[in-house]
Amino acid sequence: MLRRALSPEARQPGIELQGIPPEGNPCSRALRPKTDARPFARTIAAVLALTAAAFSVAPNVSAVAQEIDTRAKNAIVVDYTTGAVLFEKGSDEAIHPASMSKLMTVEMAFHALSQGRLQLDETFPVSEAAYQKEGSTMFLDLRDRPTVEDLLRGIIVVSGNDACIVLAEALAGTEEAFSRRMTERGADIGLTDSVFLNSTGLPAEGHRMTVRDLATLGAHLIREYPEHYFYFAEPDFKWGAPAAQKNRNQLLFRSGSGVDGLKTGHTEDAGYGIVTSAEREGRRIIAVVAGLDTARERTQEMERLLSWAFREFRLQTLAKEGDIVGEAEVWIGAASTVPLAITQDLTVAMPWVGEEDTKAVLIYDGPISAPVRKGDPIGVLRISIPGVGPVETDVVAAEDVAEGGYMSRLGAGAQFLLNKLMAEISS
């Protein structure tokens, strides 16, 4: 269980963390007062003790991360459940995503299906533009009328540019209009640096994404459209070709890899890239690599990064919804403190090594003015894992605290005067 480890000196206006453990309590951090212009309200950062009975932590991620690198120019590895970035390299650099940007074309179709604007058995004609489109193809003919499901398989499994054009024209009239909608929709779902100028990912100046956005998009597809995710794991697809075309994601065929999606990409200028999702023993990792020289290198680098992520990190539940994680000071209340509880399970991605550098900090503006009602939002609990970044969850009052009577007000007034005097002396 988490508990707050505050020294008496911490209960002063305007505290700051010093990072020096007081004698006899290696889990806490010494806090000292500093002058604050506000009479009593301040942001309190209470360091919590991390007890071995509650969880074992492995904070030294920077040391772990240094053990892995990649030949990819750009890469990111993300824990799907927590969103923690386990490794990144050039993750915010704009790249040409090649066919990996077809994931956004697929998202547009999935979104339309979820809204009822599109049906899987609906058919569309093949335009001259789609028929003539260069690059990978599902071999559509001008006389064909493929269903939406056929087109989705043509895009996801065999990366058909012709299928992208048919779908784009069906949803927006023209590929240009569809591309504008892709960019707008991308921003709506959290893509921060993506601009789409076509539906296929073919080279176009200004058509760009980042590997971070590609990871975000992959996670979005899995989370929002689980009923359609199975398409990404299909091994092959046959339409107009003499034989079925195999899925270009070679990791689908590696025993024990856990890979079940998502999309490869390649152009001469962009090199080889892939957005991958893998699940092992109930834990999912999203990873992206880009800018590699060969398809074989792409497969090798992705397999290596996935194996590293599953081996070196684990999911750890630190506290359950409703658990008491600390307390907040109450101003003129029937009780001097109120217990605080988290509003959801707190699960984080932890490396397997070390434990001493992970910190849990309770942050709130206080003291909290009475009365306090159970469920009132109070602040946040922040877990800092070096190299992974902070994880925060909301904390609320776990019980009511009524207003205090005459003696509580008298004591609060005396404490305020004492605090003010101490602040003047220290200044």
Characterise the protein shown here.
This protein has 427 residues and is an alpha+beta fold. The protein folds into 2 domains: 2-54 and 320-426, Peptidoglycan synthesis regulatory factor (PBP3), Domain 2; 63-313, DD-peptidase/beta-lactamase superfamily (Beta-lactamase). The protein has helices at residues 61-65, 102-115, 128-132, 148-156, 161-172, 175-188, 211-224, 295-312, 406-426, and strands at 2-4, 15-17, 31-33, 42-50, 74-79, 85-89, 236-237, 245-246, 259-267, 271-280, 283-292, 313-319, 324-331, 337-342, 346-351, 359-366, 368-369, 377-385, 389-397. The strands form 5 sheets. The protein has an 8-stranded mixed β-sheet, with no helix packed on it. A 5-stranded antiparallel β-sheet has the order 6-5-11-10-9, with helices on both faces. A hairpin with a 2-residue loop joins strand 10 (271-280) and strand 11. Helix 2 (102-115) runs parallel beside helix 7 (211-224), helix 4 crosses helix 5 (161-172) and helix 5 (161-172) packs across helix 6 (175-188). The chain is elongated and about 90 Å long.
